[in-house]
Amino acid sequence: MARKSKAATAASESSVEKDAAAASASAPGGESAAGKAAGLGDLWNAMLSLQIPPTALSDLQSNYIKQATDIWNSALHLGSLQAPAPKPLADRRFADEAWQANPAASFMAQLYLLNAKTLQQMADQVQGEEKTRQRIRFAVQQFVDAASPSNFLALNPEAQKLALQTQGESIAKGMQQLWADVQRGHVSQTDESAFEVGRNVASTPGDIVFENDFFQLIEYKPLTDKVHERPFLLIPPCINKFYILDLQPENSLIRYAVAQGHRVFVVSWRNPDASCAAWTWDDYIEQAAIKAITVTQEIAGTKTINTLGFCVGGTILATALAVLAARGQQPAASVTLLTSLIDFSANGILDIFVDEALVQMREKSIGPDAPKGPGLLKGQELATTFSFLRPNDLVWNYVVGNYLKGEAPPAFDLLYWNGDATNMAGPMYCWYLRHTYLQNELRIPGRLTVCGESIDLGRIESPVYIYGSREDHIVPWDAAYRSTQIFKGDKRFVLGASGHIAGVINPPAKNKRSHWIAPSAALPATAEQWQATAVEHPGSWWTDWSNWLATHAGAQVPAPKTPGNRKYKAIEAAPGRYVKQKA
């Protein structure tokens, strides 16, 4: 169970993680070859300027020698009668008693932890350009985690003991699971055979009432006799499948909204294949987000609708509403943004990957002007990248469990969703990366032209509910808070506990975690100022959001008997074909 809960938490905070990675955009036209080379030259110069102060290096060496000597002396006396029993190591990788029972393994684990700590301290002492320093720290962490003796059968006494107890069966099962993962192309994090989309995940009843090349629109079957007159449209991230919002009935945000009396519509994105490689950011805005808004209005027969965007879905929704505002339209009665980035000033760990050189590399390989034409960013590449943001929890944990111990990973719905990868169209991905993560232009009025319109998010008149997760390392909560300074209408900010996914998917019935709300409606300039007065409330933030949403949803009317309308008839049962397409 420990293996499941640790990995599940990490996955929940790193899966829609894929969101932030979708940061790679196309360079402005007409840039010179010299300008393109400048990014690589700057990186090289930054590397050359790095150094560790001599005094700091000397202190690190002295401390290392002292601690290594202590570990060596303890190991020499371990077998004597007077020697105290070794203390269990705090690191969970070495928590099993087999590590303490084997003097050589205990010594090796202690020395490894000392080496790891010293390398990390050296990385922290490096002086130079800040982004380069962050990259060095990240690279050192990757090396340290990969080099753990727990990751190797010859050095792992826990796995060796299990092999002896099972007469080699654990090793045989591990090899079988390794071969199966080689054929799958990824390390298994859960029993993938235990789930089927539409059967035991994404199972809330509904119908597809519209589809085009970009998405299917799901309308969910009402669970109440009456519904609010304004429908509710959810736009999930296009780099994940929508059913993170509908895993199981007990933790489904979609089902919860339906049960609260909302007429719920959800965008189910198509998983792009080679025929979609030329799709642009403008295509996603015009042909998907704006089209979904229009169809929802037409089906419900209302001028305005409630809207929600999750992760990059929030960025897409905000962009679409800005385009419509430029056209004189205000279709949103309310906007909910869940762990979404609008102001990309500082975005946590993902910032270390994004610079001019990276963006140009993506533009030249899969962007609209790539020599071989636009391409796809493969879903498995994104999934692997984000797993290595949390390597101990999302990679090495499974290498040890699956292969060294021969333990089949447990069935867990969130991890199944996390492994259900999606591709991204290269031009769209490149635009997003350049104009948001690299150049942070979405927040600047009139800086960007999208779908032929000069956009200004300040022209969106809707009230906005903004949610951030306190331990989110993909959309740091203070980054989510910065959206409060961009929108001009009424705003409410709520901070939830936990991470990117676990903080969002927190149903009230489980009575888990907490959320924070400031007693005043005022939203000061900085997140720190807001936090200074925020009050902690036990349990889920969903109830606060539901009460807020109801005030913008209109009167209660009889629930529709059939999905869609005369123009938009049911095409197939939810969750539809698109969500079942594999990357």
From TrEMBL:
Superkingdom of origin organism: Bacteria
Domain Poly-beta-hydroxybutyrate polymerase N-terminal: from-to ranges: 91-257
Designated name of the protein: Class I poly(R)-hydroxyalkanoic acid synthase
Compartment(s) of residence: Cytoplasm
Pfam families membership: PhaC_N
Encoding gene (name): phaC
InterPro entries, per the entry: AB_hydrolase_fold (IPR029058), PHA/PHB_synthase (IPR051321), PHA_synth_I (IPR010963), PhaC_N (IPR010941)
Region annotation Disordered: where it falls in the sequence: 1-32
Entry keyword set: Acyltransferase, Cytoplasm, Transferase
Coiled coil: none
Lineage, highest ranks first: Bacteria, Pseudomonadati, Pseudomonadota, Betaproteobacteria, Burkholderiales
Comp. bias regions, Low complexity: 21-32
